[in-house]
Design a protein that fits this description.
The complex is a heterodimer of chains A (117) and B (843).
Chain A: E1 13-18, E2 26-32, E3 35-42, E4 47-52, E5 54-55, E6 60-61, E7 67-71, E8 74-78, E9 85-87, E10 103-104, E11 106-109, E12 112-116
Antiparallel strand pairs in A: 1-12, 2-3, 3-4, 4-10, 5-6, 7-8, 8-9, 11-12
Chain B: E1 7-12, H1 16-29, E2 35-40, H2 62-65, H3 70-75, E3 79-81, E4 86-90, E5 95-98, E6 103-105, E7 108-111, E8 115-117, E9 130-132, H4 136-146, E10 151-155, H5 159-170, E11 175-179, H6 192-204, E12 207-210, E13 215-219, E14 226-229, E15 234-236, E16 239-242, E17 246-248, H7 251-255, E18 266-267, E19 279-281, E20 286-288, E21 291-292, H8 296-310, E22 324-325, E23 333-337, E24 347-353, E25 358-364, E26 371-377, H9 383-391, H10 401-405, H11 413-419, E27 427-429, E28 434-435, H12 436-446, H13 451-458, H14 468-481, H15 498-507, H16 513-520, H17 529-541, H18 556-559, E29 563-564, E30 570-572, H19 583-596, E31 599-602, E32 608-613, H20 618-627, E33 640-645, H21 659-670, E34 679-684, E35 698-702, E36 707-711, E37 723-729, H22 731-748, H23 755-761, H24 765-773, H25 781-793, H26 798-804, H27 806-809, E38 828-831, E39 834-837
Helix pairs in contact in B: 1-8, 11-14, 12-14, 15-17, 20-26, 22-25
Classes of the chains: A mainly beta (117), B alpha/beta (843).
Bound molecules: siroheme, flavin-adenine dinucleotide, iron/sulfur cluster (SF4) and FE2/S2 (inorganic) cluster.
Residues 646-648, 652, 654-655, 684-686, 688-690 of chain B line the site of iron/sulfur cluster.
InterPro entries (chain A): NasD-like, Rieske-like_NirD, Rieske_2Fe-2S, Rieske_2Fe-2S_sf
GO biological process, one term (chain A): nitrate assimilation
Domain Rieske (chain A): 14-115
Chain lengths: 117, 843
């Protein structure tokens, strides 16, 4: 479905879950090598995104439970705790410049979702 | 004009009017005529907003100030040469030549060369540290120099001088002086008395004022070190900004043999033609009606006049109103019409309040019927209305001073109604030539009900911005006239209010978020509109909030049917209607808490909260609770919370009715219904009011004859007592009134507005609410009751459904790929033998 360009050489792809495990226009959290990754099925755009699950504001493991959407054209997720919002593309916090999260490439193949780390 | 051949238009100057001319010409030529446009600009950048130049010091970038990006010209086929002034015009060959040697032929030439700062011939003006205030480059130089300067001065106490002084103040200079030759500030706009007040106010802002000072010399070696005045006094300065007026840039025209004025300015007629009919001049370089218009609005009108003529229309430039309002000094100053008329040519009303720093003056016609001009210092909030009254020759009311003082003590509402009394052709936005009629039409028939929308649709408020307050007043007044509540739009994805969306959802039978977004929204939604639409769908259909793919659009609490806590665990609040609970049920709660290690507390709502549950444990916890006869308490939802009760006549020696039974009945009736905000209720068994019913959204108090119903009370940060809606009604009537009241609230309240706030914003207040709910003035009582009954009929405990539906239950795990594992970052501390959430980690 979605193949990201410019993927650096050393990426390892981890199978995270099946497509059906992730609600449409919603997120889930996957445990990948001890790390919590939030995975979003942005089905309105036919896109997948992956980010840190931890919100840098108060270190809450919560972003996968946040609401996704867009601000102008930028796809974003809002932390359920205090509604800081983060770009799903760049990881930049759109409401407070002090914060940033990491984003990861996602690949979907044979109904399985892979995260590149 | 020929329509087959392309007409070549060359514009000299890419300033504010030069740009506006291109914009207008392009807009018109799109209507049919073929026009080729070439623009030469002397400055290195595309045209920018000179009016808001000072914003550059407030953090606006040069790009922010651009009127349009370079691509704008490209996309419209306009050839743009920057940093390349035109140096010669060959009128016989109809050619211009630029500094870099570019030669272009023209059919029509438009001179929009603006003006430069007028620099008086004082010895020393060429010293280092002496600046003018006109371009972005000037500001860069000033900013760089100010870093090492302590004392700054501005030569000139007019409109622009005071603006420059404010800028120096903001740049952090230790001292800023204003030196004015005349005996008063802003001599072209205000009188002596106004100047006195203004001077005092500016001194309070930290500016030092020197009036009636004639400067003999700017002293210093290479660099300025001060000013020497004609009275032999000295003022030490490290820098000076000269703002002594403007000098039209007519040198190019003069060299080409066009008529110019000895004191500066390219002479044009009412068609804005120079002495050569193929050459026009617009903006600050043009001398029309024997004057230079040093403001942007007349310049834009000139652009319009020439653009119209080049596309085959006839249009003339009429004398233009020069009323002004100073933008940013921190003290309101405005003048309009003829501010200096004096008796006996007029009747003058003056108002002065030295303590508050306010001075106002109105000049009326001798018969007292019309406003001829005036001055406002210290408070210019009435400026727009006064300006319109003057410009449109509106007949003055019997007490015209009310216009300038505002209706004292009265409601601010009147100002809003006043704007509607203006004639339709009243010019509201003079920069863009927009009339009251045009704005009203946009609001009435095109639904453009915000300033942002009007900026896009007709460019209102995009020039100097001075008309913005009046445009807002107009929008509100028109909407009010149409009987529309001022609309609170949801977010960038929905141009609707919650009420409108609720109606649309019902009318179109929409059941999913995406269908609502596809029908009535745009983009992908966000954390504001998603829960809102979810709540609207719930209010409309009362279906399970996790059904229809709605889980991902619910706010976290509704998505997991529990309140998220510090640390990421959840709370569990089973419903305990009326606060009545059996020992058996109490034991089950205790057992569940023990098994899952939950903190327990009696809440302020007469029930029990279990805190600290892992998301993966929620379904199992609820399975046990439901088996014991509990239901969801909706502590997570914008829905009915609790109906508190006092023990009432069943045990209490004062009780006159069975308040517990009624509370339980009420709680079971309205449980699960979603509303704009949470709903709370209480029933007391007598006038002593132990259940605190008068602090609730709807509260009931027993009387000897029946029940009193109170509505719109609130606890929280702004407590408000509920007000009496009905007296001594029987149970059945009481319930019907509550049905109507709640449904009316659900249908009309803004999102996240409690009933108290809803009532506070309601026009007509309690009397109106009563007329709708009790007297059925709108004739909707029956349908409100029916709508409520529908919601009640489809109620099902949503937790029960989740527990019984594997597909829904599956989503209650922390890790999608390790459902049995709990979030290892969750931690607790111990407190009085129970646990509590770990403190926030603060980054
Ligand atoms: C648990 C409880 C405190 C307690 O330990 O007693 C409580 C806890 C919370 N209250 Fe409350 N309120 C509780 C009774 C009250 C009361 C008293 C009452 O209902 O009699 C009030 C004042 C009455 C009122 O609402 O008019 C009250 C006024 C608020 C407000 C302010 C509402 C307002 O209109 O200003 C908020 C904030 C809000 O809703 O926006 C709030 C919000 C909250 C939230 C939901 C904050 C949040 O978003 O996390 C707390 C949830 C805790 C949790 O995770 O479960 N809570 N809260 C009470 C639960 C009652 C229940 O059984 O459902
Ligand atoms: C600090 C400041 C604040 C102001 N505040 C207000 C206000 O609040 N309200 C208001 O109405 N007005 C205000 N004005 C005035 C307003 O900015 C001017 O009226 C407006 O910019 C005039 O537009 P213009 O196009 O005629 O001239 P300009 O914007 O000056 O543009 C003329 C352009 O032509 C260029 N040029 C000159 N000669 C040549 C040549 N031979 N070849 C090529 N290019 C050439 C110039 O370099 C310049 O870029 C303010 C001005 C300043 C400086
Ligand atoms: S209000 Fe007080 S006195 Fe009245 S019934 Fe309730 S507990 Fe008794
Ligand atoms: S923890 Fe995410 S916004 Fe505060």
């Amino acid at each position: 479905m979605e193949l990201l360009l410019d993927i650096p050489e050393k990426i390892t792809w981890h199978m995270a879950c099946h497509v059906a495990d992730v609600p449409e226009d919603g997120g889930v959290c996957a445990l990948i090598e001890g790390r919590q990754i939030a995975i979003f099925n942005f089905s309105r755009r036919g896109k997948w995104y992956a980010t840190d699950n931890q919100c840098p504001h108060r270190q809450q493991m919560a972003l996968s439970r946040g609401l996704i959407g867009s601000q102008h054209d930028e796809p974003k997720v809002a932390c359920p705790f205090h509604k800081k919002t983060f770009s799903l593309e760049s990881g930049k916090c759109l409401t407070d410049e002090a914060y940033k999260i990491q984003t990861f490439p996602v690949r979907v193949k044979d109904n399985r979702v892979f995260i590149g780390i | 004009m020929s329509t087959t051949k392309t007409i070549q238009v060359v514009v000299v100057g890419n300033g504010m009017t030069g740009y506006k001319f291109c914009e207008k010409l392009v807009a018109r030529s799109e209507e049919g005529s073929k026009i080729g446009i070439t623009v030469f600009g002397e400055e290195p950048r595309v045209a920018y907003d000179r009016v808001h130049l000072s914003a550059y010091f407030d953090g606006k970038s040069a790009e922010d100030l651009e009127l349009a990006p370079a691509s704008w010209y490209q996309e419209r086929g306009i050839t743009l040469y920057l940093s390349d002034p035109v140096v010669a015009i060959d009128r016989t060959a109809r050619q211009v030549r630029s500094h870099h040697g570019v030669v272009v032929n023209y059919d029509y030439l438009v001179l929009a060369t603006g003006s430069g700062a007028f620099v008086p011939t004082i010895p020393g003006v060429d010293k280092e540290g002496v600046f003018v205030y006109r371009t972005i480059e000037d500001l860069d130089l000033i900013q760089a120099h100010a870093r090492t300067a302590r004392k700054g001065g501005v030569l000139g106490g007019g409109l622009l001088g005071l603006e420059a002084a404010k800028a120096l103040l903001d740049l952090g200079l230790q001292q800023t002086h204003v030196i004015e030759f005349a005996s008063r500030l802003m001599p072209r706009q205000i009188d002596e008395a106004g100047s006195d007040i203004l001077k005092e106010q500016l001194q309070q802002l930290g500016l030092h004022m020197h009036l009636s000072k004639s400067t003999r010399e700017i002293t210093g070696e290479k660099k300025i070190d001060g000013l020497l005045f004609d009275d032999n006094q000295r003022l030490d300065l490290d820098m000076l900004v000269i703002s002594a007026g403007i000098r039209p840039r007519d040198e190019l025209a003069k060299a080409a043999g066009l008529a110019t004025h000895p004191r500066g300015g390219i002479v044009v007629n009412e068609s804005l033609q120079t002495s050569d009919p193929a050459i026009f001049a617009i903006g600050e370089c043009a001398l029309v009606h024997q004057m230079i218009y040093g403001l942007v609005a007349p310049g834009y009108e000139m652009a319009e006049v020439v653009a119209a003529q080049l596309t085959g229309k006839t249009k003339e430039f009429k004398p233009f109103d020069m009323s002004t309002k100073l933008k940013l000094i921190g003290v309101d100053v405005a003048s309009f019409g003829d501010p200096f008329l004096s008796e006996p040519a007029c009747r003058t009303i003056r108002y002065e309040n030295k303590a508050k720093g306010i001075y106002k003056r109105m000049n009326l016609s001798t018969d007292g019927k019309y406003l001829l001009g005036g001055i406002l210092v210290g408070d210019a909030s009435q400026y727009n209305m006064l300006l319109q009254t003057y410009k449109n020759a509106i007949l003055l009311p019997p007490n015209p001073e009310d216009l300038m003082l505002g209706s004292r003590g009265g409601e601010a509402e009147e100002a809003g109604a006043g704007v509607l009394s203006l004639p339709d052709d009243a010019l509201i936005c003079s920069c863009e030539g927009i009339t009251k009629g045009m704005i009203c039409e946009q609001v009435e028939t095109h639904g453009q009900t915000s300033v942002e929308a009007l900026k896009k649709s007709i460019k209102a408020c995009t020039g100097c911005g001075g008309c913005t307050p009046m445009v807002k007043d107009l929008i509100h007044a028109v909407m009010k006239k149409q009987g529309i509540y001022v609309r609170n739009l949801i977010c960038e994805h929905f141009d609707y209010t919650r009420q409108e969306l609720l109606d649309l959802v019902k009318l179109n039978d929409l059941r999913t978020y995406n269908s609502v977004l596809d029908h009535f929204g745009k983009g992908d939604g966000c954390e504001v509109c998603k829960p809102l639409v979810a709540s609207v769908l719930a209010s409309a259909w009362n279906e399970n909030v996790l059904a229809n793919n709605l889980a991902p659009v619910q706010d976290s609490n509704d998505r997991f049917l529990a309140n998220i806590q510090k640390g990421g665990t959840y709370s569990v609040v089973p419903r305990i209607p009326g606060g009545e609970i059996t020992p058996e049920k109490l034991i089950v709660i205790g057992e569940v808490a023990q098994k899952y290690g939950l903190y327990t507390k009696i809440t302020g709502g007469q029930r029990i909260d279990l805190f600290g549950a892992h998301v993966g444990d929620l379904p199992a916890i609820w399975e046990t609770l439901i088996a014991a006869g509990f239901e969801s308490g909706h502590a997570y939802g914008k829905a009915l919370r609790t109906v508190k009760s006092c023990v009432g006549s069943t045990w209490c020696r004062f009780g006159v009715q069975d308040s517990v039974s009624f509370a339980i009945e009420i709680e079971n009736r309205y449980k699960g219904i979603r509303s704009p905000h949470k709903l709370k209720s209480a029933v007391s068994g007598c006038i002593r009011e132990c259940a605190e019913a008068q602090s609730k959204d709807f509260g009931i108090i027993a009387t000897e004859k029946g029940w009193n119903l109170y509505v719109c009370g609130n606890g929280g940060s702004k407590p408000q007592h509920a007000q009496l809606l009905a007296t001594d009604v029987d149970k059945e009537m009481c319930v019907r009134l509550i049905d109507r009241f709640l449904m009316f609230y659900i249908k009309t309240a803004d999102p996240l507005t409690r009933t108290a706030t809803w009532l506070n914003k309601m026009e007509g207040g309690m009397a109106y609410l009563k007329s709708v709910v009790v007297d059925d003035a709108l004739g909707i009582a029956a349908s409100l009751e029916a709508d409520m009954q529908k919601l009640i009929d489809v109620y099902r405990c949503e937790w029960k459904e989740v527990v019984e539906t594997p597909e829904l239950r599956r989503h209650f795990s922390h890790f999608v790929n390790a459902p049995a594992e709990k979030d290892p970052t969750v931690g607790f501390d111990e407190l009085r033998g129970q646990k509590k959430a770990k403190e926030w980690a603060v980054s």
